[in-house]
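tool_call: predict_structure(chain=1)
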Amino acid sequence: MRDSEIKTLFAKADEQVHVDEIRKQKTYYAMIEEMEKQRTPMMSTKNILFHQFWYMDKLFFAVYGVLICLGIIFITALQYTGLNQNEMITVCMVGAGILSITSIGVIDKLFFGKMAELGESCYFNTKQCVAAWLVLSGMINVMTLFLIAGYLNYHWRVGLLQVGLYILTPYLVSSIIALGILSMETRGKNLSLFGMSAIFLSISYGVIGSIPRALFVTTLWIWAVAFLVSGLLFVMKIKKLLSEMEKGEVLCTN
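tool_result:
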């Protein structure tokens, strides 16, 4: 027997059954009401993020903001100390690296600490909050670095594209190293690792800035290649970190 024939037989059988429409509607609404009672209330992603940020310790946000302001003031003050163009660019490279490590270090202290997990799902909340902070801090950092690049372009007559590569490349390299530290399963020593990496990278950027012709226009293609490669690695590191958090490989409590 074909499916169409079976459907026809069922349709004929249904025609012989009298259905009370009033009782049918009452049953329908009773089922809807019972389903609403049994449904588990779910908090929206926006509310989860809002509560996460509202209840967590905001001290590190304040420290991060103060460091950015002090860095801008420090770079502005250096203009009157007699530094030449290359020395000023080197200082900005070091500052960009420290800014990157600091912003990712905030993630380690806030979202992987015991006080941060106040929502329903540990890994879900942590992943959403880390992603939100990466976007927010990235926007703040890029705006800060853009202001510094504009400052160097105006006062030191360095090409905007040129100084942009000088500053953004160290920023991305520092971010890659900081994300690697953040991805480690073993927590507790991360603060010291962030500090040691900041010192090591600062010395490295200082050495690079002191190399003859390293900051000349003729070597700009090397900086461009380094920027593209580090940008690609940075994206891959972020995807890996979020993937490890989702799988539970990166613990969200100390």
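agent: Confidence is low (pLDDT under 50) at residues 115-124. Proceeding to next step.
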